[in-house]
Amino acid sequence: MADLRIQRLAQVLVHYCTEVKPGELCTIEGESTAEPLIQAVYEEVLGAGANPTVLMSPERAQAAFFALASEEQLDHVSPFARQLTEQADVRIRVLASANPRELSEIDPQRQVRRQRAASELMERVMARAAAGELRWVLCQYPTNGYAGEAEMSLASYEDFVYRACLCDEQDPLAAWRAQASEIQRLAEWIEGREEVHIQGPGTDLRLSIAGRHFIAADGKRNMPDGEFFTGPVEDSADGFITFHLATNFGGREVAGVKLTFKDGLVVDASAERGEELLHQMLDSDPGARRLGELGIGTNFQIERGTRSILFDEKIGGTVHLALGRSYPETGGVNESSLHWDQICDLRRGGSLTVDGELLQSDGEFRV
Asked: Of 11, 45, 85, 170, which one has the greatest count of Cβ atoms within 10 A?
């Protein structure tokens, strides 16, 4: 029997996240592992009167590419990808890795090179999105691989995913509209202020947000969602921060990251695991040592880390910082091929203070 929650998630992606309209060109991208959700999304897009284009790849295609591609192939950017980047009205992308660590033996420099080659497409996607020309959303389909990373059974992980996406609700679209109202309230509270002070165990960091715009992330680009974020002033970060949740980056686990900033630049970095990769990413280009994002999590349906940034950065009671590229719609101007989120868990006895006023302590909002 088909899982009703898959159909609900497809409805959320098409009718809430991207609001697909008749006649629009909609790309649906993902691995074959996610075929049940891709099929459901395809049917919803057709029902909305739009024109779907499905780009579904074999589950091991990415690993094969990095293992076999020549340097010329690593640098190649598909003209079809360029065309879709320019012409698509809506982009729905489904992550569905059967093995999130499949790239763990690939030389990180090959991944960095590919990131640089593809950065022109990412820049164009972000520019079109900021201009309102493109609507996109990223989601994740539950697989055994993701469940293993989260140290859950597949059944428990499925429950976790669909609960985080509010698809266990009878009317998930209405549930997301209610969530959106609260996230918007918090984003409006912080808008127009000047300084954020993050404190906690191993953390004492100040950031300027003067003149920057906060965006209420209410499910329009990520599913699940639940944060409000901005691009901090690029030369403002001063102090140090400890990130508590492990992340999987390029198939490798990086954990126990500690960063020290001076005048916005990372001047010292360490990690309990994956330190070599951390330094390689910091050295990938000049913008990689500066911050492109400050995000504050609001999704209290997500209670634990799973080594998937799509979920972990949304945990209510956490704050995350991204090294690298800014989102231009926030007013951020940092440029980089990198955008790497790291999560600080304020539920462990931390606080967020904005212009001297307490926004959050011990993971609970105080406004």
From this structure: 45
Mention every residue, 6+ apart, whose C-beta is less than 8 A from residue 106.
Answer: 63, 66, 67, 250, 251
The arithmetic mean of pLDDT across residues 109-126, rounded, is 88
* Residue 361 tokens, joined: 């302590």
307/248 Cα distance (integer angstroms): 6
Cis amide prior to 224 (ω within 30 degrees): yes
| Separation between Cα atoms, residue 314 and residue 174, nearest integer Å | 19
pLDDT of the residue at 1? 58
CA–CA distances in Å: residue 98 to residues 54, 83, 104, 141: 20, 29, 14, 10
Positive or negative, the Cα torsion across 303, 307, 309, 310? negative
Bridge partners of residue 299, in order along the sequence: 315
Q: Domains of the chain: which residue ranges?
A: 4-168, 176-365
CA dihedral 178, 184, 189, 190 (to 10 degrees): 140
Does the domain at 4-168 match CATH 3.40.50.2300? Answer given as no
CB within 8 A of 237, min separation 6: which ones? 205, 206, 207, 261, 263, 264, 265, 290, 291
Handedness of CA 199, 204, 209, 214 (dihedral sign): negative
Is the distance from CB of 9 to CB of 165 less than 8 angstroms?
yes
Rg (CA), the chain: 20
pLDDT, mean over the chain: 94
Encode pLDDT of 150-209 as tens digits: 999 999 999 999 999 999 999 999 999 999 999 999 999 999 999 999 999 999 999 999
- pLDDT tens readout for residues 68-78: 999 999 999 99
pLDDT single digits (tens) 315-358:
999 999 999 999 989 999 999 989 999 999 999 899 999 999 99
